[in-house]
TrEMBL record:
This is Histidinol-phosphate aminotransferase. The gene is hisC_1. InterPro entries: Aminotransferase_I/II_large, HisP_aminotrans, HistidinolP_aminotransfase, PyrdxlP-dep_Trfase, PyrdxlP-dep_Trfase_major, PyrdxlP-dep_Trfase_small. NCBIfam families: hisC. Pathway: Amino-acid biosynthesis; L-histidine biosynthesis; L-histidine from 5-phospho-alpha-D-ribose 1-diphosphate: step 7/9. It catalyses: L-histidinol phosphate + 2-oxoglutarate = 3-(imidazol-4-yl)-2-oxopropyl phosphate + L-glutamate. The modification N6-(pyridoxal phosphate)lysine is found at K226.
């Protein structure tokens, strides 16, 4: 029997986030002894051993509600980053903070400016909250800040800059970004999504926290899901003016960040050696892939993250399927806005080598008449 209740009109133009099959399902379906997942932008080296040990000790406390203020983590981050505690907001991943910013600050039909090819949840959540997403094309895979500034009008409430950008891995030169921040009217929120901050090693990458004192409309988002390897526990944080944190507190769920996630994040900050080792291995993997791809004649966006958008001049869906049949999962660039590209997570050296060998064979299969 058909359901007669109608959902909100805005949902008619929104599709659910596509979730892929599990590795176990893929192995069974294709009869593969092993599958290497290089499609999800995760830290393939896991999380700190210290985190695992502490979580074991915390299992007897699960009957307690989590601390709704995330006090221990807020204090730890305050000391680690050198900011006041009231400048920090802890979220269920930085995704939640994006939703809460929209809930707290975006009125009906107000506009939010963003790149056309970037983290897709900006656009989706703006629409769900009744706002209007304004999409500005990237330029060679990089945010076109000049065009984004030109898009500002009296309806503009916020601007999103994903830096490094997902899915291209590119950064905006720091001088350009500072000049942009300086020009944007102070009544418009500037949201710098720095989920991949720790992987950016270029001298051209902006160290943004020092700008908060001057620009009260600046919001910086970071996460424990990437380099700290805690994606399964969903912990993100924002650094911003204390007025903004107070407004977000009004619209958040009371117990928005789970107990184990808070505990793990505190311990992860204590193990900076693990973080540095992950960054080092990522740099080594990136250098290997860049050299191998260059020798094969493939181009790619210069990445400052733990993934690469590789241009293969072949239908991205077709190549991703060919790689899947060889036990390598990658993300087709087609749904991401680059139809003849694939996005690949920089992984362990063993996985990186297997990917290159599988890529050579898959390309030959795809170009055969």
């Amino acid at each position: 029997m058909a359901v007669k209740v109608k959902s909100r009109e805005v949902l008619q133009s929104i599709t659910a986030y596509p979730l892929g099959k599990s590795i176990l399902d893929i192995q069974k379906e294709l009869g593969l002894p092993m599958v290497r997942n290089m499609s999800e932008i995760e830290n393939v080296f896991g999380c700190s051993p210290l985190v695992k040990e502490q979580l074991k000790k915390s299992l007897n406390q699960l009957f307690h509600y989590p601390d709704g203020s995330s006090a221990n983590l807020t204090l730890k981050l305050s000391e680690f980053l050198g900011v006041d505690q009231n400048q920090l907001f802890i979220g269920n991943g930085s995704d939640e903070i994006i939703r809460l910013l929209l809930r707290a600050f975006l009125n009906h039909r107000e506009e939010a400016i963003m790149a056309d090819i970037t983290f897709p949840r900006y656009r989706t959540n703006v629409a769900i909250e009744g706002g209007v997403p304004i999409l500005v094309p990237l330029e060679s895979g990089v945010h076109n800040l000049s065009a984004m500034y030109d898009a500002i009008n009296r309806k503009t409430k916020m601007v999103f800059v994903c830096n490094p950008n997902n899915p291209t891995g590119t950064i905006v030169p720091k001088s350009d970004l500072i000049a942009f921040i300086d020009k944007v009217p102070e009544n418009i929120l500037i949201i710098l999504d720095e989920a991949y901050y720790e992987y950016a090693t270029s001298e051209e990458y902006l160290q943004s926290i020092s700008l908060l004192e001057k620009y009260h409309n600046l919001v910086i988002l970071r996460t424990f899901s990437k380099v700290y390897g805690l994606a399964g526990l969903r912990v993100g944080y924002g650094i911003m003016n204390s007025f903004i944190t107070s407004e977000l507190t009004k619209v958040k769920e009371v117990f928005n960040v789970n107990q184990l996630g808070q505990t793990a994040a505190v311990v992860a900050l204590d193990d900076q050696g693990f973080r540095e080792d992950c960054i080092r291995q990522n740099e080594e993997g990136k250098a290997f892939l860049e050299k191998a791809l260059h020798s094969l004649g493939f181009s790619y966006f210069p990445t400052q993250s733990n993934f690469m958008m590789i241009h293969v001049n072949i239908d991205g869906n077709e190549l991703a399927e060919a790689l899947l049949n060889k036990g390598i999962i990658v993300k087709s660039g087609k749904p991401l806005g680059y139809p003849e590209s694939i996005r690949v997570t920089i992984s362990s050296m063993d996985d990186n080598r297997h990917f290159i060998e599988a890529l050579k064979m898959a390309v030959k299969e795809c170009v055969q008449p």
